[in-house]
Automatic annotation (TrEMBL):
Residue spans of biased composition, Low complexity class: 375-393
Family annotation (PANTHER family): BLL1128 PROTEIN, UNNAMED PRODUCT-RELATED
Domain of life, per lineage: Bacteria
InterPro entries (alphabetical): AB_hydrolase_fold, Esterase-like, Ig-like_fold, PKD_dom_sf, Plant_Biomass_Hydrol_Est
Span of the signal peptide: 1-39
Region Disordered, annotated ranges: 374-393
Keyword annotations of the record: Signal
PROSITE patterns reported in the protein's UniProt record: PROKAR_LIPOPROTEIN
Xref: Gene3D superfamilies: alpha/beta hydrolase, Immunoglobulins
Protein name as it appears in the record: PKD domain-containing protein
Amino acid sequence: MRPPSRPTFARLIPTRAARFTRFLAGAFLALAACATARAATAADFASRTYTDSSGSTPYRILTPRNYNPAARYPLVMFLHGSGERGTNNTSQLNNNANGALVFVQGPAGSSDTTYETAYPCFMIAPQSTGDWSEAVRRTHLRAIIDGLIAEFSIDPDRIYVTGISMGGAGTWDQLAQNPTRFAAGVPICGWGGGNYAAFKHVPLWVFHSANDPTVGVSGSDDAVNAVRNNGGDPIYSRYATGAHASWTEAYKNPHLVPWVMSQRRGTTPALNPALRIATAQHGATASLSGWASATAAPTALTWVRTDLGSGTGSSATPGTVTGTTDWSASALPLRNGSNTFRIQATGTSFSSLNGGVTTFSDTLVISHTAPTGDTTAPSLALSTPTTSSTYSTATQPLTLTGTASDNTAVTSVTWSSDRTSLTGTTTGTTSWTTPALALMNGANQLTLTARDAAGNIATTTLLVTYTGASPNLPPVVNAGADTSLTLPATLSLTGSAYDDGLPAASTLTTLWSVVSGPGTVTFANELSLSTTASFSAPGTYVLRLTAGDSALAASDDLTVIVSPVGTARIRLDLGDPSTTTTGNWNNLTAIAANTEVANAIDSTGASTGIRIRVSSAFNAVASSGLTGSPLYPDTASRDYFYTQAAATGRLEFTGLRADRRYTLVLYASRTDPGDAVSRVGTFTVGSATTTLDAVGNTTQTATLADLTADGIGKLELAVRAQNTASGYALLGTVELVVTPATPAFSSWIATYFPSSTSDPTITGPEADPDRDGLSNNLEYALATRPDQPSTAWTTGRWTDTATGQSYLTLTFRRALGPTGLAVIAQTSTTLSTWSSATSDVIQQGPAILDPDGLAETVTYRCAQPVTTSPRQFLRAQATTP
């Protein structure tokens, strides 16, 4: 008898062995020995209901036969069609869930345990009263899965969703709403709901009949095309007949269940039908080659470059590929920037009854910069353990060897693994060797890339099927994208951590912590992946999410820029007009001088009166062609303006104010890791300068801080390659952060003595109306009040724990105001000669910014310890405009 679904409730779950009444003991044993197990039926699913303040969702759950908490199991979620809507918690499983119970039965139905034995899994079938896209249903489905993962030993990397008709649309909706949750999806005769770019990486097998009279086939056609246009590679079985009940033949497909059960979240889709781009070379043009599954009986292959609107290679006129199961395509045209190529095969629908075809594909993105001389790509080949593009083994680790050649020289050969997310550089180039590479059970795609000095590239992939036991690997941790906020807001944290389930029976634990920052951070629950954080002071913080599986641990850091009250952020996207960024972004799409955004908006959509203009032209617009930055939307992080060699591009910001401070946060976009050409840019405003490398960049930004506008309210950013002979400087996004500054003295003093502004004995710079020994000028500089006695500073001692030496300290606040306002620390041993040199006086620790951003508290110490120099003095010196 299978165990109860929840130990706190007594449930009778029918056994799936043959049933006997009372016999004599000997006869019973004889009959039991002859009994054969049957596959699961609807009667074996336990009944449950999820309830919260918004309502209830009933669902049925099947626990794997002989459930073992020390093992990890997949979970299949089935979403019913409109005909099964209700609350009886039975209709959704009628007719073997319209064929979906194949996942816990076998090809022959309830008399067949083939799949149940080979792929033991949990299966749930919720029931809805309305559409699956209703907010309450989305929330409940998410909560049901989260609860089951907490209750049972379910592998979060093997959660699958399928549905029919309304449930097919629900499957598309679940993928759109939870793009990182599912390892595969099987929508049948449904329709899509958007957000396709977010889940393009999820393996999909889509089914629909061309003659469906209830849900037109265009519902699946449009969704599949949208995923493909965003770089995904869904499998699409488009039957010629079958009307609305395409699920009948879909769930009978002998390849479907093995295909679904082979998928793991975040890895290359495995098993047939499959198509792979195994090798790629590109210089002036691109050449691709690979293979397609023979079991899918491919009859025709085509190539498409997704940006082409017309002509050969466009979606309207796909280019021809030579071959079928082994194929090649050569002389494919390239443009500067991103080139997305899709190789697509047409094969059998796997249904002799319904006919039709299945289309399946593989996509490759090539980042191309037109070579100025050498246009010949390297050659790259595997030597061991095979010269083929596929390999199967039961042992690991695996070492690859091979060769590479070029008409000039191969500068590097790199490797990557999709299952371990590891990358590295081989030993050697013309004859190369990888380190010993760890393999995970199932499909592992290993990619080798060779580069030459001109930027020409060749790649080859080896699809390794590993049939042995997987090694324990550290958890995969993602703290989320770097972000920013303005006080007093709190930050919502949504991290993720996944593990391979090893060691057996281990529990994955997570912890949020603070790596650095100027103030304190308070987590609502530091042990939860999803929590909130509040910050005591403005500044830059680094938060860390750590996950451990009892043997190994891993972490990921998140940078948070906390701005003071009153801060505004103006975001600028530089790039091609075809990839402008929507929302509260400003877009500059032309590189010529005098193109502009006349009245920039801030991150809330409010007009700022700030003009952003190209004051010196850039060389061109290009695209990285690779995964963009998690910092910004893909459209903002993928393309960029660039300058080349000694050329300098300039952006001008005008309409700025003297009582504001400005920070520029720069992101350069991303180019191919290992790019031999220098992509380090130099960015300068006045005397402030910084650099930023675009090669392999996803999260790195450069900052120019504490900038003030000139006398006419202008800042100008100059962009130039660090290598002025042959390098490039890329600039994809700019954030202009506007922070309040202390107003001019006259405005400041008037806020305290509005009726005495003409009386110099009260409001004059040297007056001391509160008689605390501090003139109004000093009160202004030290951010204290002129209308009540204040303590301007405190003295003390700081002890170096490493040496035991003590140092004299001085702590004070200072206003952050317009140009000309400065407060510095000075030291002396004679009281006649004072020094602010860093060799004599040192700032101790970071400055602590006030929440409103108008002042900061700093501590300085003498450079010499008290024991070395017992006679020493510290003072603060203020300079006011």
